[in-house]
Amino acid sequence: MSLEIRGLGLSFRQHNGRRLEPLSGVNLTLDAGEVVGIVGSSGAGKSLVAAAIMGLLPRNAEATGSVQIDGAPITKGDVALAPQGIDALDPMAPVGRQLTRFARLAGLSADAGRRRIENIMQQVQLPAPVLTLYPHMLSGGMAKRVLLATALIGRARILIADEPTLGVDPATADQIMNCLGGLAGPERAVLVISHDLPRLLGIAARLTVLKDGRMVEVCPSEHFRGIGERLVHPFTQALWQAQPVAVSA
Amino acid sequence: MTGWLGPLLVERAIRLCWLAPLAAVGLFILVSNAPVDPIEAYVGARTALIGPEQREAIAAAWGLDQPATTRFVLWVRNVASGDFGDSILYNAPVVTVIMDRFPASLLLVSLAWLLSFVIGTGLGIVAAMTPGSRVDRAIRAYAVVLTSSPGFWVAIILISIFAVGLKMLPSCCALPPGTTTAEATFWAQGRHLILPVVALSVTGIAPLVLHTRARMIGFLESPPAQHLTAHGASQRAIAFGAGLRHALGPALTVHLAGAGELFGGSILAETVFAWPGLGQATVRAATGGDAPLLMGIALATLLFVFVGNMLADIAARLVDPRLRWDKSR
What we know:
The complex is a heterodimer of chains A (249) and B (329).
Chain A: E1 2-13, E2 19-31, E3 35-40, H1 46-54, E4 61-69, E5 72-73, E6 79-82, H2 95-105, H3 110-123, H4 140-153, E7 158-162, H5 170-181, E8 189-193, H6 197-203, E9 206-211, E10 214-220, H7 234-241, H8 244-248
Parallel strand pairs in A: 3-8, 3-9, 6-7, 7-8
Antiparallel strand pairs in A: 1-2, 1-4, 4-5, 9-10
Helix pairs in contact in A: 2-3, 2-4, 3-4, 5-6
Chain B: H1 5-32, H2 38-43, H3 52-62, H4 68-80, E1 86-87, E2 92-93, H5 94-129, H6 134-147, H7 151-165, H8 186-220, H9 223-230, H10 235-240, H11 242-257, H12 259-273, H13 278-287, H14 291-319
Antiparallel strand pairs in B: 1-2
Helix pairs in contact in B: 1-14, 5-6, 5-8, 5-11, 5-12, 5-14, 6-8, 7-8, 7-12, 8-11, 8-12, 11-14, 12-13, 12-14, 13-14
């Protein structure tokens, strides 16, 4: 099983008739068992890659290129996304009810859904009573893990996590990243979009570096070491050298 | 879960304790300064036959020879002991008059409330499913026409079409002429309800349509809905699943809070359809200078509106957990 993104580009039609191209020429390959990361500064188009794969583009957007799994277009349930914003949780429904919705979308019976939710809750390390809480009662870290849980319920072959550690304390961030690292398997590949370079390097085999909507570098994680002498693009080197922990290491 | 309900009820009870007396003072000032002379209204056409002595006797019997402040103190003292006085026009205790007529009004108002809620939110959801489409535009145009149509005018149009023209439905009253409640069949009573209920429901529909539509469109474009869409949920499934609470919750609150408006509308509808409810009694009491009955009805209406608003607050909290406050937590 492998996800193939070829020449992915996006173009937004603006009010003044001009076109904005926030993304162009993105290629990415993701095989079962792999964890791959996308890094880049804010506004580089990282989340747009996720949106394009999920078909969540605004109406004025036009996508070019192809996104395929084993040579066939993506179908319902193939890809699951844990979105960046915790506002993706329904403020009027308790966590349990929301997870049940995703279980139903995955075609699980009520019973199977309940067991699956129990399982997933352990996997993302949330205690069972969280199921009765409403989103506004959750801490940021809990909400992030609930979002991850919504994406894990169906048996999607590709899991995308968009900034899974944003706004979360270091210990919880470690937990979330390790959890993501453990999710890749013979039937599943994981794509992690993150600013959190050190933690991402801990789980990802390869990184794709985006700058202003273009890929500037694709390299194995080992290239991020020392003062970045094995990194090719100056932007990637700057990104690496901006990491206080990494440089001292 | 319901830790917020107790404090809310206590707070509202305290509010009623100062609101009701305040309203009573305001009402009394209005009623005692009304341009209707109760004695003149009572005497009516026999005005030439009645001399000043008789007028004074009537005034003395009703206490109208006393200054307004004295009358108010007397009234408050009586009300405190549960006596709202006697209606001049109906020649019966105010409480009895109200209790006799309230059920008929309540039936009318609650059926109209229910009908406008079902139609309003239903059309709102349908319009939200395809915003900008022909269906959506037709529904919005319908809502605009409804808002701009006064209830009493709609009532008259309904009568002229269904009662006069098609002769399908009765044009007045709660029962066929010459029958009592015991004699009339369920269907006969139901037939008399249709036109007044439809006429009364008209005013409430438009705001609900627009409100429900806006809320549903807002939710369908929101991150939670997108998250569900991304995982294979259809728009219909989202609208009738997670979306209902987002769209119907606020609509329920708005509609409960608007129950008072509906009660006001029932005065017009009851007049047009000669419906034997509280609205009709209100008009008679106002034009006939029946101060005790008017005061009683006004206070009953205050209570009705107050309960409606309180139910709206409770409904809002039941629907949206973020509005609940619980001091114990």
